[in-house]
Each structure stands twice: as structure tokens, then as C-alpha cells.
Design goal:
heterotrimer; A: mainly alpha; Helix Hairpins; 76% helix; elongated; B: 495 residues; mainly alpha; 20 helices; 78% helix; 2% strand; globular
Chain lengths: 121, 495, 515
């Protein structure tokens, strides 16, 4: 089973692992910055996923030239470029919000923030 | 005119997208408000041209940059798409004139121009979601609108707006990423991202595990965005603490566009697969929709903040839309689609009326609204009118939606579902009536009995939207025809 | 003017009138009251003209707006609806006069809102009467519910608010859960909601569906106050008496039973009901309601509450007639709508006069009051006799036809129910009159009121001759003022006159129940 699964699908196992790690951090950690980092890990796993599926064994870069028969699919790379941009924007915005939260609540621990929110009611 | 007719599908996206950065360049609240309003109104007219074009000439297929599908990015606007674009741009054109006074009251002066910039970006993103025919492009527009939304929510005057925005950001990003994962799997199986192309390629691989998992990721991803119960947790706080104008705009548009995107994915991309039937998930979706209708309404009954009350009511209303989709015949589907339009009108006007309340008395807590019928008669009347629509009183849009939904359920012989729809509207009676009673039959607190109505610039847009909510409830032939023919097209598979 | 214009006009008149009231009210109470009367009279004129058109065989129809593709707000005149429209609009005139006297005498606040909602309620009643399909009827039915809510909760006290909640909860609850479901279900089964002679469901739906649908319709029309959905009517009695009189004895409740008759006749068709037996069990429910609410009425000491339970009982007469599913039964029902309207409105007028001008609400406090208010009590007596069903008063005929229908369908038990109910009517209505005339006055603390003119703190002396107590020059008499008394006398005379014109109404209804 392992021999079957690992050689060809190693990338996907890693994607899976990263995804779960990311999700776990987002859910379990109280520190807001760590949450954002977790979110990043989660997103990165998807990037790896796209790039892995585009790779063809023995394929090279998709350049229109003689002698190049087998090449990787370029489209997912391009898609992921877009997704990376989106990811960066999200991270930046998230971190900016964390800064503002620190300014107005005086903490970036989620449970403490919640406590203070309760007092606002 | 030919230029307009030729490029209309892309213009509705481009115009607000290009206009947004100008707001930042201006760095002046009033100027960028003027500019944004101008653009919004202009875009509204463009969208009228668009819907007329679609209704006379049929579905528009626009190849972006001249690259033909399935290789290039394609915009595809059918009747429902045009209707959704019309909703977004109409709401924008009504909310922006309203926004000036409201935002001046609720947001520090130096950030005004940012609010208008984000508003325009949000409009562009939402309209983009409605017109695009490319599944990955959908993700991009989804993120454009979402990022703008996070910022807009964070602009709220309460510090809890920040945490609401951050939590929405985390969940929203998870949702969008889920969608990308699902889409990646579909791409693995078919090698295409064009919605029409996907639709023709999918049936061949429909029974693979990958496609099943892909659909699950997509539905959960959008379920988060459209606040499908129990993925709605981000919504109440986000709506409660966002600035009033922003809440009105988002409540009226954001979830609806997500619903529409999901409709396209399920009924166009997966159209020939008929996933609800062939994967046997129809009961599950229906149960979630009905659970949302009841949970949303029940929680709404116990809210003391009226904005939050209406936010939970939105969760319930999204349940109606999803229910309409999941029943799976034309009247019910039409009910779901028409409810996107109708709910935009009623929730928009309700949140705008609440904005008026906040403007005058600085609070939207139920106890602070005592005696509002005497203090702010026009605003209070608007809240009652919108409330009627939520209940589904005849002559309001809510009645029309309910009529179609129940008709669909009964046509299918699902009378328990019909009964549940009716019962959940009784819950709406309860939460609306709590507000009405406090406003009309309780005396105002000492010291604030004198009459003080919100300014006209807030009231007029509120009443325009409310008027529409009654107009399309009295004469629903326009929306009914579109919804019905769209429903038949969608259920007939991808054409 | 064409009949079509007149139809729209008769809806526009109360609507425009209500708007004018809204804007003129705060300026001058006299202008507002004048407007109300003019609106009411003009409306009745138009309706009367339409009645003659319908009597001559005309069936004008007009579509206001297409609400949904294939479903529109349409008004079509037919005799049944004209009867209802006729009573509602006629009694509005009478009630307006009464209301001026009452509201001013009682120093009610928010009178403009009161008369505004009143006019809207009348408009909805006319809309229900004229409705050409079930959708139109449903729409106006709901407008009626909502426009009368502020009238019920008028005083804004805790009690009024609670009553308003019950009122709205039951009426909206039943109409949305049952009635709307039934309406849409009908549409799904038949593809139309038009009222048609002989019924639209006849032969178009399976028997089981018809049975369920009929139950949904009858319970969905909560305004018919069939037990167990009758609680709203006693609750609504906290409203000012003119509201109880016109709306809760005439417009609202009659809208309910009228809808029941209309649905039975034009949606199901009496033959369908007869053949499927869908209505049989409901006939028993109606019979039970007749008896039970009469029994409850006997135990109520509050006059208005007693009258409310009496109304519930009488409404079930109408329902029973429709449930018997014969032409004679339905005719009896329709006649009873008319007869009961005149009788019950008189009773409520009297109750109101007693409340405002003698400050008595409990029957046990009214001993000997008949000597002080002889005219009021005499009218109460006559109207009570009409409700009981004694000749020569209108109520005789409706009971006659109802009993005839029961005999025709060999359901002797319902004849028994009608007769027992008459006895119960005597038992709960006559004591009021008897104690009033012959009872010994209690040495109560209210003696101060024996001389009509004095006032109690907040009651300023009546400012106008029309609002002054009548004494007829006799000591100990302190009758209600002319503005209240004239309507009472008028409707009492109506009870008499109807006895002689019942057959004219039957002929008018012949096209519907002629078979």
C-alpha cells in the first residue's frame, strides 16, 4: 500500500498534511497572528496541489521548440500566480486587522479578545 | 451605441473596477463620494441596457480580449445573470447617495475615501461573479469582492467590527480556498475551467471519487460565503458591526451573489450530472435549508440588537433560497431566484431604515427604540413596511417568493415542506412584531420624546427601495417571468 | 360611468377618504368627521348603484393588476358579494355617526389613526366582497387583518397589547399556515383561482385532496371564528365599541363567514361537497361551536364579552349552513350574514352607549339601568329577539332556511342544535333586558352618574348639543345623546324591515342559489 501510494502520490500526501496542519492552526490557536500563518499554510498547500497536478514526469518547460515533446501544463502555474497574489493580499489585510485589534483591545489572544467583547455588550 | 452593445457585458465590471483607484487618488471624502455615486448610477444604467439586451437578443457570450473559450476567459450573461447584475447595481445606486450622511456619522473623516474605493471594488467583484463564465475567474472576483468587504466591515465604529472582519476574513478565505481545491480537482479530471466546457466534459467522469469530492469542496466553500446554516457564524457579527450603509449594501447583495454562483455551479457546470439527484444529496441540502430557516428565525426572536436580529433573519432567508434550489422543479427554483431579488429589496430597505435610526439616536438596540413610532414616524413606518415583506404579507415581495416556493413544494407533493415554510414565516411574525410593539406601543425614554426624523438624504433612498419592495410585490410579472424562464433553462441542463 | 369604473371607484373612495382623513385629522376634528361621513355616504351610493346593476343581471369584472404571471387582482361582481358589500357600506355610515358620539364622549386619543384604519378596513371589506378570485380575496383578507390591528390595540395599554398579539397571532397564523397553503395548493391542482359557479375543484382534484383542502380553507379563514381558533374575537373586545360593533360584528367576522360561503360555493361547489362529504365533519364542529360558545356566553358578566361569544356562536350558524352543502343551506347562511349584522351591531351600539354614558361594563351592575336608558334597552330587547329568531324580525328567516336545509339533508340533529341554541340565546340575552327593566338598582358608588350632566374629573362636560344626554323631560332618565341613539334606533328598525324584505334578498340571490 505504502509503496503504491508514496512514489507517485507523495506530493498529494504532503498537500494533505499541510492542509490539515494549516486548518488545525487556524482552529486551535488563540494567537491571531498564528491563525493568519495557519491560513497561509493552508493556502500554500493548495498552491502545491495545483503545481503538482501540472507536473508531468519527464516533462520540461512548455517552450515551443524542436525536441520538446513532453512538457508540464503551464496553466495551473499561471492560476497559482493569481492565487498567490490573492493570498498575499489576504495575509496583508489580516495582519493589518490584527494590528488594529492590538491597538483597540490591547491583546491579540483570541480568548482575551472575546472576553473584552463580552464586556462591550 | 454598437460599442456599448458589443462590450456591455464587460463594461459593467470594468467601470467600477477602473473607477475605484481614482477615489484613492482624490483622497477627499466628498469628492470620492460624488465620483462613486456617479459611477454607481452610471453602472445602474449600463445594467439596464444589459438586461434589455439579454432579454431581446438572448444570452451574451463575450470573449475577453478576443480569446475564444474554452481557452480564453469568457463572460456569459443570461437572464438571471443580468437580473443579478441589475440587483447589485441598483442597490449600489441607491445605497451610495444614502452613504454620504451615514458614513460621515459613523466613519472618521480621513477614511471616507477608502470606504468609497472599497465600495466600488466590492461592486466590481460582485458583478464580476455574476457575469463571468470562467470558473477560476469566479474565484478571482469572489476574492476581489471579499477583500473589499473585509475592509468595509472593519471600518465600523465599534471596535468589535475589527474582530468581526478578521473572523469573516479567516472563514471567507477558507471558503474561497475550499472552492479552489474543488475546482483544481475538476480541472484534473477535465482539463478545462470554462463553465460551458466543463458542463460538457463532466458527465463522462461523473462517477469518479474525485468529482464527488470536488463538488463537496465547492458546495462547502460557497456555503461559507452564502452563510448556509451551519456555516453562517461569521454573518451576524459582520452585519451588526459594519457601518449602516455597508450592511445595507452587503445584506442586499453579497449573499445573493454567492447563491447565484452556487446555482450556476450546480445547474450549469454540473447541469448534465444533476448532482442533487444522482449523488443523492437533495435531502441533505433541504434539511440544511430548513434548519437554517428555523434556526435563523428562532435566534432572531431572542436578539436585543435589531441589526443582529435582521442578520439572523438573513440566515433564515438564505435558507429559503437554498430550499427553492433544492426542491428541484421550476416553480420552486423560480421562488429561489426571485427571492434573491426580493430579499435584496426588503433587507436593503430595512438595514437602511436602521441606519436612519442609528443616525438619529446612535443605537439600534431594541430598548433604545421604544416609542420610535412617535419620534421618527417615517423611519418606523419603513421598518414596519420592510417587516411585512419579511413575514410575506400579500402585496409585498415576500409574498411572491413564498407563493412560488410553496407552489413548487406542493407540485412535488412535499406538503410537509410547504407547511414548514408557512410555519417559519410565523416565526418572522414574532420577531418583526417584537420590534413593532416596542416602536409603537411603548413610550420613549424620558428626555427623548421630541420628534426628530432622519435627514431626507437618508430617508429618500430608504423609501425608494421600500417602494420597490412593494411595487414588485404588487406587480411581479416582470421578475416572475424572468425567474420562471431562468428556472426552466437551468433545470433543462446546460444549453 | 361604466360599472367597471364604479368598481374601482368603490375601492378608491375609502382609500382616498382615508388619506384625506390622515392629513385633515390633526387640523380639525370636525373636518375629519365630516369627511368620514361624506366618504361613507358616497361609497354606499356607489355600492347601491352596483347592486342594481347586478340585480339586473350584470356581472361586470375588472382586473386591477397582474400580480404574478397568470394570477391577477381581479374584481368580479356577483350577488353574494354585493350583499356583503351592501351591508358593510351601509352600516359604515351608521357606525360613523355613532363613532363620533362615542369617541368624543369617551375622549379617546389618536382619533385620526382610528378613523384612518377604519376606512382602510372598510376598503378591504369591499375588496373581499368584490374579489373575482381567491388571490384577491386573500390579499384583502390580510389587509383587513393588519388594518384592524391598530384598532384593537388602540388604547396601548398592556391589556390592549396582549389582545393585539392574540388577535394578530391567530388571524395571521391561521391565514398563512392554512389558508395560503390551501390557496397555492388549489392553484397547483387546478391552475386557476377564479371563482366560478359550480366550483373550480369539481372533478379536477382527487377526493382525498378535496377533503384536506376544504379543512385547510375553513380553518384558514380564522375570521369565521370556528372553534378552536375563536380566541381572537373576545380578545378584540378591548377595542373601542364602534370597532367592536362594525368590525367585530360586521366587517371582519362577516368577511370570514362570507369567505367560507364563497369558497364553498365557488371554489368547491356545493355539489362537490355534498358528493365527497368533505364538509360533514366541519358541520359537527360548527354545531359544537354554536352550543359551546353560547354556554360560555352565559357565564360572561362583561356585556361586550358576552356579545363576543354570542357572535362566535352566530358565526357558526353561517358556517353550518355552508357545511350542509345545499342551496337552501347556503341561502340561509347568506341571509344570516345580513340578519345577524343588523341585530348584533344594534346590541354592540347599546353596549357602547351603556359603557360611555352610564359607565357600566358588567351586566350585574346594570340592574335597573333600563329605567334610566329606556330607549337603549328597548332597542337591545328588539335586537336580541332578532338574534334569537322570533318573528316579526329578520333573524327568523335565516334560522328558518338553515333548519330547512338540515331537514332536507336528513340531519335532524342540526335542527335540534339550532333550537337548543335559540333557547340558550334567550338565556344569555334576556337577563340583560330583564334586570335592566325590573332589577333593583344597587346602591352603588356610581350614584353620582344618576344625573347625566355631572362629570368625573377627566370627563369634561359634552361640548355640543348633539353630544348631550337626552332626558326626554323626565326625571331619572339619562339616555345616550342623539348621535349615539339615532344609529341604534335606525339599526333596530332595520331588524324589523328585513323581516319583510327577506324574500327580496332571496330573489336577488337566485342566480347563485337558484338550483
Amino acid at each position: 500500500m505504502i509503496e503504491y501510494a508514496f512514489p507517485g502520490l507523495l506530493n498529494y500526501w504532503i498537500v494533505f498534511l499541510l492542509m490539515m496542519i494549516g486548518l488545525y492552526i487556524v482552529i486551535a490557536h488563540e494567537n491571531l497572528i498564528k491563525k493568519i500563518v495557519g491560513l497561509n499554510v493552508f493556502q500554500v498547500s493548495v498552491f502545491v496541489f495545483y503545481i503538482s497536478m501540472a507536473k508531468i514526469k519527464g516533462g520540461t518547460a512548455p517552450i515551443l521548440a524542436d525536441g520538446i515533446e513532453v512538457y508540464s501544463n503551464p496553466l495551473p502555474h499561471v492560476l497559482i500566480l493569481t492565487a498567490i497574489v490573492v493570498g498575499v493580499a489576504t495575509t496583508a489585510l489580516g495582519l493589518a486587522l490584527v494590528v488594529r485589534i492590538q491597538e483597540s483591545f490591547g491583546t491579540i489572544e483570541d480568548d482575551e479578545v472575546r472576553e473584552k467583547e463580552e464586556q462591550d455588550k | 451605441m454598437t460599442f456599448l452593445a458589443e462590450h456591455i457585458a464587460v463594461l459593467v465590471v470594468i467601470v467600477p473596477l477602473m473607477a475605484a483607484p481614482l477615489c484613492v487618488v482624490m483622497r477627499c471624502g466628498v469628492a470620492s463620494w460624488g465620483w462613486a455615486t456617479l459611477v454607481a448610477v452610471g453602472n445602474f444604467f449600463l445594467s439596464i441596457v444589459l438586461i434589455q439586451h439579454v432579454m431581446t437578443n438572448g444570452t451574451i457570450v463575450y470573449d475577453l480580449g478576443g480569446w475564444e473559450g474554452p481557452w480564453g476567459i469568457v463572460y456569459r450573461v443570461d437572464e438571471v445573470g443580468a437580473l443579478v447584475v441589475l440587483i447589485i447595481s441598483a442597490i449600489a445606486a441607491i445605497v451610495l447617495p444614502y452613504a454620504k450622511e451615514s458614513i460621515e456619522r459613523e466613519i472618521p473623516k480621513e477614511r471616507h475615501y477608502l470606504a468609497y474605493c472599497m465600495m466600488l471594488l466590492c461592486i466590481a467583484g460582485l458583478i464580476g461573479m455574476a457575469v463571468t463564465g470562467d470558473a477560476f475567474n469566479l474565484f478571482v472576483f469572489l476574492e476581489v469582492s471579499s477583500l473589499a468587504t473585509y475592509v468595509l466591515i472593519a471600518l465600523g465604529s465599534d471596535r468589535r467590527a475589527l474582530t468581526a472582519a478578521l473572523r469573516y476574513l479567516i472563514l471567507g478565505t477558507l471558503g474561497a480556498t475550499f472552492y479552489v481545491i474543488g475546482l483544481g480537482m475538476l480541472y484534473m479530471m477535465t482539463g478545462s475551467l470554462n463553465m460551458t466546457d466543463l458542463a460538457s466534459l463532466l458527465p463522462a467522469v461523473q462517477n469518479t471519487g474525485t468529482v464527488h469530492v470536488a463538488l463537496a469542496f465547492i458546495v462547502v466553500g460557497f456555503g461559507l460565503k452564502l452563510a448556509l446554516f451551519p456555516l453562517h457564524v461569521w454573518l451576524p457579527n459582520a452585519y451588526t458591526f459594519a457601518p449602516s450603509a455597508v450592511t445595507a449594501f452587503l445584506a442586499a447583495t453579497a449573499t445573493k451573489v454567492a447563491v447565484y454562483a452556487l446555482i450556476r455551479l450546480i445547474f450549469t457546470v454540473f447541469g448534465d450530472v444533476d448532482p442533487l439527484e444522482s449523488y443523492g444529496v437533495r435531502p441533505a441540502v433541504m434539511v440544511l435549508a430548513i434548519a437554517g430557516m428555523f434556526a435563523g428565525s428562532l435566534i432572531a426572536i431572542y436578539q436585543s440588537n435589531v441589526k443582529r436580529l435582521l442578520a439572523y433573519s438573513s440566515v433564515a432567508q438564505v435558507g429559503y433560497m437554498i430550499l427553492g434550489i433544492s426542491i428541484g422543479n421550476a416553480p420552486a427554483m423560480a421562488g429561489g431566484i426571485i427571492h434573491m431579488f426580493n430579499h435584496a429589496l426588503m433587507k436593503g430597505s430595512l438595514f437602511m431604515a436602521l441606519g436612519c435610526v442609528f443616525y438619529v439616536i446612535g443605537s439600534v438596540k431594541l430598548e433604545d427604540m421604544a416609542g420610535l413610532g412617535k419620534r421618527m414616524p417615517l423611519t418606523a413606518a419603513a421598518i414596519v413596511g420592510g417587516g411585512f415583506s419579511l413575514i410575506g404579507v400579500p402585496l409585498t415581495v415576500g409574498f411572491i417568493s413564498k407563493f412560488y416556493l410553496v407552489q413548487g413544494a406542493l407540485t412535488e407533493g412535499m406538503w410537509p415542506v410547504a407547511l414548514l415554510i408557512m410555519l417559519s414565516s410565523l416565526l418572522a411574525v414574532i420577531y418583526v412584531w417584537r420590534v413593532v410593539e416596542v416602536m409603537y406601543f411603548r413610550s420613549p425614554a424620558i428626555g427623548c420624546e421630541e420628534r426628530s426624523e432622519a435627514p431626507m438624504s437618508l430617508l429618500v433612498p430608504t423609501y425608494v427601495l421600500l417602494g420597490a419592495a412593494f411595487w414588485f410585490g404588487i406587480d411581479a410579472t416582470f421578475t416572475g417571468d424572468i425567474a420562471m424562464s431562468a428556472a426552466q433553462t437551468l433545470l433543462g441542463g446546460s444549453k | 360611468m361604466s360599472p367597471e369604473t364604479l368598481i374601482l371607484l368603490s375601492l378608491a373612495i375609502p382609500f382616498v377618504g382615508s388619506l384625506l382623513l390622515l392629513f385633515s385629522g390633526p387640523a380639525s376634528a370636525n373636518v375629519r368627521d365630516g369627511l368620514t361621513v361624506i366618504t361613507a355616504i358616497v361609497l354606499f351610493g356607489v355600492v347601491w348603484h352596483l347592486i342594481q346593476i347586478v340585480d339586473a343581471g350584470g356581472r361586470p369584472s375588472v382586473t386591477l393588476v397582474e400580480m404574478l404571471p397568470g394570477l391577477s387582482i381581479t374584481f368580479t361582481l356577483e350577488p353574494l358579494g354585493m350583499i356583503f358589500a351592501g351591508i358593510a357600506s351601509f352600516l359604515w355610515i351608521v357606525t360613523s355617526f355613532y363613532a363620533f358620539g362615542y369617541m368624543r364622549g369617551h375622549h379617546e386619543t389618536n382619533q385620526t389613526r382610528f378613523f384612518f384604519c377604519f376606512a382602510i378596513a372598510i376598503m378591504s371589506a369591499i375588496g373581499i366582497a368584490f374579489s373575482g378570485n381567491m388571490l384577491t380575496l386573500f390579499v384583502f383578507y390580510e389587509v383587513l387583518t393588519i388594518s384592524t390591528f391598530p384598532l384593537v390595540a388602540h388604547s396601548g395599554t398592556d391589556e390592549a397589547r396582549r389582545a393585539g398579539r392574540v388577535y394578530l397571532g391567530i388571524l395571521i397564523g391561521t391565514s398563512i399556515t392554512f389558508l395560503l397553503t390551501a390557496v397555492i395548493w388549489t392553484y397547483v391542482e387546478v391552475g386557476t383561482l377564479d371563482f366560478r359557479q359550480g366550483g373550480i375543484l369539481a372533478g379536477n382534484a382527487p377526493e382525498g385532496v378535496i377533503a384536506v383542502l376544504f379543512g385547510l380553507y375553513i380553518y384558514g379563514i380564522g375570521k369565521a371564528a370556528l372553534m378552536p381558533f375563536h380566541r381572537w374575537l373576545p380578545a378584540a373586545m378591548v377595542a373601542p365599541t364602534p370597532v367592536s360593533a362594525l368590525l367585530h360584528a360586521v366587517a371582519v367576522v362577516k368577511a370570514g363567514v362570507f369567505s367560507v360561503v364563497k369558497v364553498s360555493v365557488f371554489i368547491f361547489g356545493l355539489d362537490t361537497l355534498q358528493n365527497t362529504g368533505a364538509s360533514t365533519w366541519l358541520a359537527y364542529v360548527a354545531a359544537a361551536t354554536i352550543l359551546l360558545s353560547s354556554l360560555v356566553a352565559m357565564r360572561k358578566d362583561n356585556l361586550k364579552a358576552r356579545l363576543a361569544y354570542s357572535t362566535i356562536s352566530q358565526l357558526s350558524y353561517v358556517v353550518l349552513g355552508a357545511m350542509l352543502a345545499t342551496n337552501i343551506g347556503a341561502l340561509g347562511s347568506t341571509l344570516h350574514i345580513v340578519m345577524h349584522a343588523f341585530g348584533k351591531i344594534t346590541l354592540f351600539f347599546c353596549a357602547g352607549a351603556i359603557i360611555v354614558f352610564a359607565h357600566k361594563t358588567e351586566i350585574s351592575d346594570m340592574h335597573g339601568l333600563g329605567r334610566k336608558m329606556p330607549v337603549t334597552f328597548f332597542c337591545f330587547f328588539i335586537a336580541a329577539l332578532s338574534i334569537i329568531g322570533l318573528p316579526p324580525l329578520g333573524g327568523t328567516w335565516s334560522k328558518w332556511y338553515l333548519a330547512l336545509a338540515a331537514a332536507e339533508t336528513d340531519q335532524v340533529i342540526f335542527i335540534a342544535v339550532l333550537m337548543i341554541s335559540s333557547l340558550l340565546n334567550i338565556a344569555y340575552l334576556m337577563p340583560v333586558v330583564l334586570y335592566g327593566y325590573f332589577g333593583k338598582e344597587k346602591p352603588a358608588a356610581h350614584d353620582a352618574h344618576d344625573h347625566g350632566h355631572d362629570d368625573h374629573g377627566h370627563h369634561a362636560p359634552p361640548e355640543h348639543p348633539l353630544l348631550r344626554h337626552l332626558t326626554f323631560g323626565r326625571p331619572g332618565v339619562a339616555e345616550a345623546p342623539v348621535l349615539c341613539l339615532a344609529p341604534i334606533v335606525l339599526t333596530t328598525v332595520g331588524c324589523f324591515v328585513l323581516f319583510f324584505y327577506a324574500d327580496r334578498i332571496r330573489i336577488f340571490l337566485d342566480p347563485v342559489f337558484g338550483g
